[in-house]
Amino acid sequence: MISPKKISFLQTSLLSWYEKHQRTLPWRSKDGKPNPYYVWLSEIMLQQTTVPTVIPYFNRFIKKWPTVDQLAKATEDEVFHLWQGLGYYQRARNLLKCAQEITHSYHQKFPENLKTLLSLPGVGPYTAAAILTIAFNKYAVVIDGNVERVLSRYLCFDGLFPGAKNEFSHKISPLYKVDKPGNLAQAIMDLGSSICKPASPKCSICPLHENCCAFSTKTVQNHPKKAQKPLKPTRFGTVYWIKNAKNQLYIRKRTEGRLLAGLMEFPSTDWLEMKDGIKDKKSSRVHHTFTHFHLILDIVTTNKIPPDIKGGFWCNIEDLKNHAFPTVMIKVIKEASKIRP
Ligand code: SF4
Fold first, then answer.
1. CB 3.0–4.6 Å: which of 75, 79, 110, 131 could bond 36 by disulfide?
2. DSSP string of 162-177?
3. pTM given for the model
């Protein structure tokens, strides 16, 4: 349990710091009336992605689809195209499904309770809690990486993440019982991104330092404690850069049930782990890292479609930009464009 004195100090210090130092972000309201569509869209984009990367994507999305019902009318290809480069494409898929559900089942209004929010496509415990607190100023315990870092330092919390998340959530839950839980959640996020940074926290200007356990015990770098992640395996494959005499490239859509389904690709073999890996670098190659594995793709250039490659079409080089390619295929375009015919 955190002592009532410590909770009250945290709440007062964080909220008054936030009044003066909050970040200006395009999804935040200036008039104290947050737009739930903006809050939801930004929180989905911010999963696994940093704020500076998300800002231009967010602005492009709300320019094209200013409201949730307008987004609901988009095609998956259109959403993928604007999402291109943000990665984790399942998020884009669920974004569209969620917009359609909000529009058709909830009359374009985001639900204001945790249980219903959690039933929406792509909305997990963190996102549901963030929407509830930030969009509707309701009580929920919001825990992202910033909250984990700031509060486990402040409390010298020694549990090992991610396993200790429930214990941590229980411990910090009284903190969010304030008049403005949305501001409190955003205050910790802002403090974590500008002051209590992972590598070099600026403790001397931190509003929490006089009561911060890790600061007083000189154990800042020991918190939060994290379990070691398992090593990622490496998979290998070949990707075909097939160009005809008309200067067109052969591309296809990745089929359902595969990673990056629905996005465009230059045809490739399956991506498989190989016992000894590939030792010789015989061709142009790209490296990419997904959540669960590293990928090495060798590029083979040819002017004929290999017999086992099917389901694609020819695309003028200048029209490639009109299709949604995942980042790994953008790397293939860059690398293959260097190859002399
Ligand atoms: S005093 Fe330092 S370690 Fe403690 S919360 Fe502030 S920045 Fe983080």
1. 110
2. TTTHHHHHHHHGGGG-
3. 0.87
